[in-house]
Each structure stands twice: as C-alpha cells, then as structure tokens.
Amino acid sequence: MARVVKDKYDILGEVVAALRDYNKKVIIETLNARDNGWAMGFEKTPQIPTRRTKHTYNGASSLSRMHAESIKIGDSISIKRKRHKPTFYKTEKHEYEIDNGHYYIVRTPKGEAIFESNDSDFLTVWNYALAMYDGTENYGRFYSELRNEKLKHIAGGPAVLKDESIDKFNKAVAKLKSMGIEPRKLADYIKVKTGRNVK
To answer: pTM for this structure?
Structure first.
C-alpha cells in the first residue's frame, strides 16, 4: 500500500506537474463504453476504450470521459473514483439505498491521498486531466480555476512540450512491426552491412 502523505496537496501537486508534461499519455477507464469507445448500457466493470469516440455530449465531452472511473497519467500516476458506502433506509413498505456520493484516491510516486468530491482544486485537476484525454484542454482556464497556492505555483512552472521525434520513432517502429520486421534485427543487419561491429 502506498504511503499516505500528511499534506495531500503535495500529492495533487505531482499530478499538476505531470499534466504540464505533454509527453505523458492520459488514459481513462470508463463505464458505458464499448471497446471502440462508443457509449452503451450501464456496465458493472470499467474498461479502457481502445480509441476516443468522436461522438460528444453537447460538443464538449466524449461519452467515455463522462463516465470515467479512473485516470492514468504517464506510468506512475493514477486517480481512482470510489463510491462511499450508501445509507440504507427502510420504511414499512419499502427499502431505499441513499447514495452518499464519491471520493477519489490519488496515487503518485510520493504516496497516496484521498479527496472528497467537493474539493474544488481536486475537481479542477480531475476535469483538466479528462479534457487532456479528449484533446479539449484549456490551460489558461485550468490555471485560473486553481485556488490552492501550492498547486498554482506548480501549474505556473515551465511546460514540457511534446517531443515529436519520440512520436516519429514510435510510428516507425510500429510500421516495421506491422510488416513483420523486428527493428532490433534490422538495426543489427544494417550495422553488419555497413561494416560496423554489433555490440
């Protein structure tokens, strides 16, 4: 189990810093989404859509985003939405389950923190991460909505811009693999043919 940190905004600050790095991929786990990303009936088990659906709600949010149960940012940060235990209420004729809302568990390399659904700074970070998933992020708005000074300071730091060379390399590797060519074997072959020693 991750170590719980005394100041939970140190943990949330790590999330903000990660969202400043455009090389970190944002993945969501969602309810009501087929493999291809389209919405369907209420599912019990969250799943990761294989692509973002083009269909949006009010032209702003994908259906996958609307039903997100968790978010992963890069390789080491995750946010999981959990349901509070409901309250059961019984009358002479009926039994009711009263929904007590949700809370969120944030895990980073520094540790773990819990946020309630009424924490405005947390919700700002959660919604911005989802906007990054959808490709509709607005950093100026995100920054202006943060209230915690620690988070605002981190958000005001330098961004890490997307390294296009990484994308080009990954695309080239994927293309070679789709043709049945192992990139490492090809590299070794080229070195031999050009007279270089293979290490």
So the answer is: 0.71
